């Protein structure tokens, strides 16, 4: 394990192609101990890189450093003000020990379809900043997860920060269903974003985790809600469409049939709450 003292040093080491980055280690340490998958031969410990920390508002965006822990996100006044759904998602991940070590950047690059924060990034139109010795680039969250546990990040790149555009009129809601009320890997995660304009929903985003190989948005369901007034019949229609649109699988945590049914129920309940009926 190598510990760089600065971000440029980390980039230089990664450019050799021989290192696997590690931060909080809540996922990668399981591999290193050989309990899940093939452990990496060389590990780059980026935990001490202050350049990857911090939560601030700049240029009309909430900027969250990649090394921000779930505890820091959950307790951040800025996150609570501008994106409480992200704080809520962070609070559902594991126990206190996991929240103290696990990071937003780690959740992103681990690329699990069950990653609790990832649907929030999609619903919020977030962008992910990755950097290397070649410079930095911005990748839309919608383009970042390319397959099961695969991302658009190159081997010599680190996730630096996540930018959430500030849209004061926007509402974002988060829901998770697991095997228990807390400390459980998700069976379904859903994030809903919209703004109300003249009594109808606009800029609707519906994003899901644990129902496909990657976190996904559901455009057919979004089109049902876009421009619609908050009515029970609209919620009924959207819940039916989302059940047909998603393609979940059976696995050790749940069945596809259960995931399809519960996803429709979660969305219906959220729409009822937002519509106030």
Descriptive labels:
35% helix, 13 strands, five-stranded antiparallel beta sheet, 2 domains, 12 helices, Uridine Diphospho-n-acetylenolpyruvylglucosamine Reductase, domain 3, 277 residues, alpha+beta, Enolase-like, domain 1
Describe the structure.
The chain has 277 residues and is of the alpha+beta class. The protein folds into two domains: 51-165, Uridine Diphospho-n-acetylenolpyruvylglucosamine Reductase, domain 3, CATH 3.30.465; 170-275, 2-Layer Sandwich (Enolase-like, domain 1). It has helices at 7-14, 28-32, 70-75, 77-82, 84-90, 96-101, 104-110, 118-123, 141-144, 219-225, 232-245, 256-275, and strands at residues 20-22, 43-45, 55-58, 61-65, 127-132, 135-140, 145-147, 150-151, 158-165, 170-178, 186-197, 200-209, 216-217. It is globular, with a radius of gyration of 19 Å.
